[in-house]
Amino acid sequence: MNKFLRFLFVLVIIAMLGASILQIFFPSYMGSHSGYGVSAGWQREIGIWNLAVLILILGVNIKYDWFYLRIVLLALIFGGIGIGTNHLVNFMEYHSPVNAIGAFENYLLATGWIVGWLLEHHSRKKITASK
User: What angle do CA 15, 49, 84 make, to 5 degrees?
Assistant: First the structure.
């Protein structure tokens, strides 16, 4: 796996682990700083979901397989665009700066996943062509 993808995975692992801890153990704090309001149960559910996704990300990094890496990347791209768009819609409706940041970071990550995928695909193609 290329270094750029590894860097993105490490960045996402750290961010999601931190967010999961905050959402599970401090849901009121997280909710009060979101554009969606406080819902402790919903915040905990997001934290648990993030942990489930982290297991997939860790697995694909421990046991590298191009097929499964593409599946995880596709899910991360789709999720990043969807969550980013949800933040963007909320920002446009309520002008919440937290949602503007959420939209930007999710679109940036989705772009990073796409670039990483293309870099990995290109390097795999080059290796196959040289054989």
Answer: 60
Alpha-carbon gap, residue 52 to 27, rounded angstroms:
18
Q: How many CA atoms lie within 13 A of 30 on its CB side?
A: 19
Contact 19, 50 (CB under 8 A): yes
d(CA 95, CA 4): 33
Q: Any idea which residue has 């909710």 for tokens?
A: 31
What would the two tokens of residue 11 be?
């960045």
Choose the weakest-confidence range: 9-18, 27-36, 60-69, 88-97.
Answer: 27-36
- Please report the DSSP string for 46-76 in residue order: HHHHHHHHHHHHHHHHHS--HHHHHHHHHHH
Q: What is the mean pLDDT of residues 78-82?
A: 96
DSSP state of 35: T
Average pLDDT along the chain? 90
- Cα 108 from Cα 79, distance rounded (Å): 12
